[in-house]
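Example record used in the benchmark description.
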Amino acid sequence: MNPFTKINTFVVNTTGSVTTLVISIFILAIIVTGAMVAWGSEENVPRFKKALMWSIVGLMVTVLARTIVTWVRNGVA
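Model output (structure tokens):
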């Protein structure tokens, strides 16, 4: 049996678990930063708006990661 088959299976399973964890973290970050934008002090609102934007971008990249990898692997054209 090829040892790389076990490694490939491990990586695929781990990637799925890590993706789920990262999506959960980004959703939590969106909730927290959204609450801070809505009810935070006025001096910190711009900082939390920027964090909210980056949390949304990070979530989108995480959700679309498999599509992005396939697109790059096929030659970006």
